[in-house]
Design brief:
There is one protein chain. 79% of the residues lie in helices and 10% in strands. The chain has one domain. The chain is rod-shaped, with a radius of gyration of 36 Å. The protein has 105 residues and is mainly alpha-helical. 0% of the residues are buried. It has three helices and two strands; from the N terminus they run H-E-E-H-H.
Length: 105
């Protein structure tokens, strides 16, 4: 790509006169600089417009990420509660079994 740009620049060294009307400036610029400048300007403007248009998507993605994080925390909390309840329930059943086995002895 760089080679193509260099060849283009060498073959288009002829200066072009740019009139910045209504300003009183006249600028002599090589044609290659105008072309490369126009391409760079287009890339910058296009990227900026795309970034601005994607703003809504970024907000939505951030919102969903926050909801996901909240849901993951809730899942973790509920799993801990389930484990605690299972330990309590297991303890009760163990005591019942122990008490029942003593009655039959």
């Amino acid at each position: 790509m760089a080679l193509i740009i260099v060849i283009f620049a060498i073959s288009n060294r002829t200066p072009a006169l740019i009139d910045l009307s209504p300003l009183p400036f006249l600028i002599d610029v090589p044609i290659w600089a105008i072309a490369v400048g126009a391409v760079l300007f287009g890339i910058i403007v296009g990227s900026t417009v795309r970034w601005l248009l994607d703003h809504r998507r970024r907000l939505l993605a951030n919102s969903r990420a926050k909801k996901l994080k909240s849901a993951e925390k809730e899942i973790l909390l509920l799993r801990k509660k389930i484990a605690k309840l299972e330990k309590l329930e297991f303890g009760k059943t163990s005591q019942i079994n122990i008490n029942n086995s003593k009655k039959f002895s």
